[in-house]
């Protein structure tokens, strides 16, 4: 018997949202109709579809003023940081720190893997430096963090969807990686039930628990979580940078 | 329960505590050595001192211990449990009476509490201890007078004191702080009275004295204190012998005063501040619960209040109506959340709020029992609340209703 939820993939409302049901109600049909998988507050992660990355089309809006500031790599990293933090609830301190630390971890990962990533450029026929793309552009191939993610797990009744809330989610193309920060807040029973339901319905789910750490401390990525997230370039032939066209966003 | 109003809350049991159902502002849970959960309750007034209730099965609470006060001109309004030590606050009805202070009990055998020590806070200007906080096994943070403290105004007698109980047999003062200008001899001017009432009135508002002091293990160098008409303070207590003001916030005036509890939500950079309603029939309306943005602890910014039912509906039902105690997220066998807040609002019952969006707290559950028998007012006056880590809610009624054990569907 088919399971519509499982077949549809994960529908994830994310960001500084009060009611994930509204995000889904307002955007899911339109996104599905247009073949889009990502908006500033909704992501769809279907089995078989490529990873959602910082350079995936749809999560960020590049208005003309922003584009002017994106000429240099640091400006582009700053844009991603600002935009993602603006999408993270103002009073979710540990999640905000997690997102900022993740982006710092990606910067360190690119630096650490630089010889390998440069080699990939050369193999693709590009110069190590000075070409249209350079090694730092790999930064934007990192998996897109979806802060304050609400994953649809079912419906209590008509117009009453149930969401499992996690502190951050990533779609790697093969797994839905979710991060739960073990802070001072215990989940109420309904939240615990929804999370259990998510575990049950998604065989491609990987759950990582991490202790909240202050901004600048990358210890959350020292273990298995870091290992799961630092191989983002493995499936990519080219880095593309931040501005990847929608047409090639559907590729890995 | 017939006559109760509720949403997403269900009564599991109700116990009037052998006819002494006046529950004060002390509710604290012990996990006894044999695994039983004992809910310790302070009484609103004499003759009972404290009661221990086995709530291992919250559907069948069972009293294991009920003790008496030494005399009827005192009360043990507040208590806290840490491990096997119970700390009880003693406040007397007239200055100079004894015993006034804090008594420590060994409750390793819950049926037989054994006094360990008594810390004397009596004095010619002191009523002793009204409220205490004890969660780390090392220091009690409390609101009390002292033998050497002469307030300028008779109702400003209880100030912030830190008692070192690392040796529970020999408690000693570790530090103190009071609102500048409230002690005789202070260089600061006395604070302007908010709602002046007669000097002969011992209890009630028109006071610049401490109510609650909350200090959490996650931030042992900070005290969050509610100073009644003086408002909310964040104190640096890294040096306990010399607390220093980091910030203060006071909605009064124009609001009617009586700041009660200041509870930080540290990971979120928020503070919940409660007022206490102290007059019947909404005479001191509105008494609110406030949401404060404390991301910059030196600049406290109010961003909202918790919704309450309308004053037209509840204000004249009898007794008090408005904010009071909240479940204070203390460590131990206690539910801890920076997103769900449990509070008691006298005749508006036990109320549960979702504050994920702190700009717009939402009521997600409530339970309002009917007025208990033999009460001096017609409504239930829900006075204090505690939530254990299983999510069981324990609420105390102020006059005769005793203990209500509840579960939520949230």
Task: Offer a few descriptive terms.
heterodimer; A: 252 residues; alpha+beta; B: 410 residues
Describe this structure in words.
The complex is a heterodimer of chains A (252) and B (410). Chain A starts with a helix and ends with a helix. Chain A has nine helices and six strands; from the N terminus they run αβαβααααβββαβαα. Chain A has a six-stranded mixed β-sheet with strand order 2-1-3-4-5-6, with helices on both faces. Chain A is α+β, with helices and mostly antiparallel strands and 252 residues long. Chain A is globular and about 55 Å long. Helix content of chain B is 1%, strand content 41%. In chain B, the strands form seven sheets. In chain B, strands 7, 8, 9, 10 and 11 form a five-stranded antiparallel β-sheet that branches. In chain B, a hairpin with an 8-residue loop joins strand 9 and strand 10 (101-106). The chains are: A alpha+beta (252), B mainly beta (410). The A-B interface holds A 18, 89, 91-94, 183-186, 188-190, 212 and B 218, 265-270, 293, 295, 329, 335-340, 356-358, 360, 389, 391, 408-410.
Question: Quick summary of this structure?
Answer:
The complex is a heterodimer of chains A (252) and B (410). In chain A, 37% of the residues lie in helices and 17% in strands. Chain A has 252 residues and is of the alpha+beta class.
């Amino acid at each position: 018997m088919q399971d519509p939820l499982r077949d549809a993939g994960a529908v994830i409302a994310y960001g500084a949202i009060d009611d994930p049901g509204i995000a889904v109600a307002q955007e899911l049909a339109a996104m599905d109709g247009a073949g889009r998988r990502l908006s500033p507050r909704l992501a769809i992660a279907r089995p078989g579809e490529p990873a959602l990355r910082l350079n995936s089309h749809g999560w960020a809006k590049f208005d003309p003023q922003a584009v002017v500031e994106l000429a240099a790599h640091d400006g582009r990293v700053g844009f991603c940081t600002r935009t993602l933090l603006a999408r993270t609830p103002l009073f979710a301190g540990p999640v905000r720190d997690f997102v900022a630390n993740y982006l710092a971890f990606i910067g360190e990962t690119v630096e650490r893997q630089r010889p390998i990533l440069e080699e990939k450029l050369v193999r693709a026929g590009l110069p190590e430096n000075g070409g249209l793309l350079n090694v730092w552009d790999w930064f934007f191939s990192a998996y897109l963090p979806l802060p304050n993610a609400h994953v649809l797990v079912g419906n209590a009744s008509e117009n009453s969807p149930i969401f499992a809330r996690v502190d951050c989610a990533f779609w790697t193309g093969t797994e839905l990686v979710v991060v739960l920060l073990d802070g001072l807040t215990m989940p109420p029973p309904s939240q615990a039930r929804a999370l259990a339901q998510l575990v049950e319905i998604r065989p491609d789910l990987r759950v990582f628990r991490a202790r909240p750490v202050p901004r600048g401390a990358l210890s959350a990525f020292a273990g298995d979580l870091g290992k799961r997230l630092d191989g983002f370039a493995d499936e990519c032939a080219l880095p593309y940078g931040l501005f990847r066209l929608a047409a090639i966003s559907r590729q890995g | 329960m017939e006559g109760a109003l509720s949403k997403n809350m269900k009564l599991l049991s109700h116990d009037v505590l052998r006819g002494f159902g006046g529950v004060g502002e002390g509710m604290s849970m012990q996990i006894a050595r044999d695994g039983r959960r004992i809910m310790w309750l302070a009484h609103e007034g004499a003759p009972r001192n404290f009661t221990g209730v086995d709530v291992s099965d919250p559907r069948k609470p069972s009293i294991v211990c009920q003790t008496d006060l030494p005399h009827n001109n005192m009360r043990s309004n507040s208590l806290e449990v840490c491990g096997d030590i119970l700390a009880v606050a003693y406040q007397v009805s007239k200055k100079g009476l004894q015993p006034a202070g804090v008594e420590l009990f060994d409750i390793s055998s819950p049926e037989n509490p054994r006094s360990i020590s008594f810390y004397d806070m009596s004095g010619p200007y002191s009523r002793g201890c009204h409220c205490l906080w004890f969660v780390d096994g090392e220091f009690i943070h409390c609101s009390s007078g002292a033998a050497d403290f002469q307030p300028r105004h008779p109702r400003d007698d209880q100030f912030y004191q830190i008692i070192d109980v690392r040796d529970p047999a020999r408690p000693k003062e570790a530090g103190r702080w009071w609102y500048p200008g409230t002690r005789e001899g202070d260089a600061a001017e006395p604070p302007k009275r908010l709602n002046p009432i007669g000097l002969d009135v011992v209890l009630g508002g028109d006071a610049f004295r401490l109510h609650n002091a909350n200090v959490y293990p996650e931030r042992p160098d900070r005290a969050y204190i509610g100073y009644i008409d003086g408002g909310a303070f964040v104190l640096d207590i890294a040096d306990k012998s010399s607390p220093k003001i980091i910030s203060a916030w006071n909605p009064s005036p124009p609001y009617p005063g009586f700041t009660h509890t200041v509870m930080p939500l540290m990971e979120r950079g928020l503070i919940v501040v409660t007022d206490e309603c102290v007059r019947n029939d909404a005479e001191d309306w509105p008494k609110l619960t406030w949401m404060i943005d404390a991301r910059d602890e030196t600049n406290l910014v109010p961003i909202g209040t918790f919704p309450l039912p309308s004053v037209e509906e509840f204000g004249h039902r009898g007794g008090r109506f408005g904010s009071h105690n909240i479940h204070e997220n203390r460590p131990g066998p206690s539910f801890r959340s920076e997103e769900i807040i449990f509070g008691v609002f006298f005749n508006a019952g036990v109320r549960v709020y979702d504050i994920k969006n702190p700009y717009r707290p939402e009521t997600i559950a409530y339970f309002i029992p009917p007025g208990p028998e033999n009460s001096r007012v017609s409504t239930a006056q829900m006075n204090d609340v505690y939530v254990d880590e299983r999510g069981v809610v324990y609420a105390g009624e102020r006059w005769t209703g005793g203990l209500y054990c509840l579960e939520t569907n949230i």
